[in-house]
Amino acid sequence: MSFLIDSSIMVTSQVLFFGFGWLFFMRQLFKDYEVRQYVVQVIFSVTFAFSCTMFELIIFEILGVLNSSSRYFHWKLNLCVILLILVFMVPFYIGYFIVSNIRLLHRQRLLFSCGLWLTFMYFFWKLGDPFPILSPKHGILSIEQLISRVGVIGVTLMALLSGFGAVNCPYTYMSYFLRNVTDTDILALERRLLQTMDMIISKKKRIAMARRNLFQKGEVNNKPSGFWGMIKSVTASAPGSENLTLIQQEVDALEELSRQLFLETVDLYATKERIEYSKTFKGKYFNFLGYFFSIYCVWKIFMATINIVFDRVGKTDPVTRGIEITVNYLGIQFDVKFWSQHISFILVGIIIVTSIRGLLITLTKFFYAISSSKSSNVIVLLLAQIMGMYFVSSVLLIRMSMPLEYRTIITEVLGELQFNFYHRWFDVIFLVSALSSILFLYLAHKQAPEKHMTP
Amino acid sequence: MASLDRVKVLVLGDSGVGKSSLVHLLCQNQVLGNPSWTVGCSVDVRVHDYKEGTPEEKTFYIELWDVGGSVGGASSVKSTRAVFFNSVNGIILVHDLTNKKSSQNLYRWSLEAVNRDLVPSGVLVTNGDYDREQFADNQIPLLVIGTKLDQIHESKRNEVLTRIAFLAEDFNAEEINLDCTNPRYLAAGSSNAVKLSRFFDKVIEKRYFIRDGNQMPGFPDRKRFGGGVLKNLHYD
Question: What domain of life does the native source organism fall in (chain A) (predicted)?
């Protein structure tokens, strides 16, 4: 009886998450495009719903809501469904939509998409070999095998995003790094852009006029036919068409220049807006936050290095450690069990909410930047795949932030994954990503000012 | 050669509707083989005979400025795009017949282009809603072109064409529906070619032949924005 109640609660919450994902898709991601294939929207919302359900189950675990056995059952069910989606459905549909875009393969779409999917499965499987993630006594298609590989990909993604975000956040917030851009700089660049456009236009006018004259003399569309025609074509039209190809090459070079100038002008406008923003109250607040985040970022890099060098993985979670410190050093006595439950609930809740929100915002920005009307389906599915893998690995890593008694359900369901490996792997990739972001941002920052300095 | 007079026509529309293919077809009478995403603005030139076949026939250069991007883009991109919207003599609005959103976005596109001349500081004061009154005294000739006609199934054709007719009426403009990969839609003598010719003639007329006497065409009560009007007067 209680099982039925629990299941109905779970299903209701899943429907709610599905609705939220649907709305997010329609209002945010696809607001400039028309949804032609509803399959894409359904897949995205389903992935989102099942990912959120996993987090919900963790919260329920901490709070002790619902029956323990029904929680366990739903965990297993949820995990199976999500793995099914991430490993079978989404890759297949990605392949299908990629193939649909290519006109040549339109006839045998299904065949080619199956082929693509099999290639994906092969590489996905091979991915697990070099990593010491599993004890070798499990069968081929068990949950552990699949989840271990999904976990590797997801943790890599998390660490990359995390590393880049940790470095980029202070860089964007702090106004110390803002290049000085004046209105005269922008006007000068705009003038250059318009001059380039004028040069392109005058050259194109010559080409158009020349072509029109040739056409009126009836020579453009005449293909030389026969022996006599061939000899005529060698001597006759040589100077005219050579001239044209030369001008065409100049036009191509100028067009490339105009594109560069356009992008630079966009960059300058964006910097100018940021300067204006930094003078407002909100801007100053973010500037202050930026200093704070830069210290946090440096500390995180330091901790990651220490973890790797001294080969240690934290054994206790922050909640228990915090409680230990307060009890032992500060001498405050309180009901440990009660408080640890509530504090870990709050902490885990914050981590979950911020990571979901951060991921959705990043995905949206990414989507706007790179999608076009042809590739929007493929990109949204890729984002759904990334989102699913990201959330699955968050579950793996969040285990470290919870006190021992709440970790049992994750450990039970996921079996004997080597969790420590994942943490080590996260630290390594985080370090690599943060350091290369610093290098990349330094180079980009150095290179930009020299271009705009007008003599 | 470069001594012929010129007019500037903007080609606006969402990304992916086929503006580059259309411009290529109009200017070079050939189908564009490998369309790629337009960054910034690409220009092409068409040589047009004004009042063809009459004694007043004169040849003009028509510059087609194909401005890329999406209408909901970042404001830095919008500010940069605005530099191309100076002194425009005609606007061609392109939309995709298979994509309803692209037709709806045309309102925002036209507002962005028309408003550029109203507010010299470059800040868009409208929230993007369509206001017919803003178009009531708009003197810039408009043309609405729908692309990818071949991809519309026969059964849906009527419904789509009626919807487009309403759209064109809103803009007080002619409409042409075609497929940019097939030159026969603009073959000489076809009704589409006639409409196109008429549109270009109208643009040239507005620019060169209705200048005598009184006022600047198109901005009767905008004298307050002294800078903007003067800038237009000194275009050529």
Answer: Eukaryota
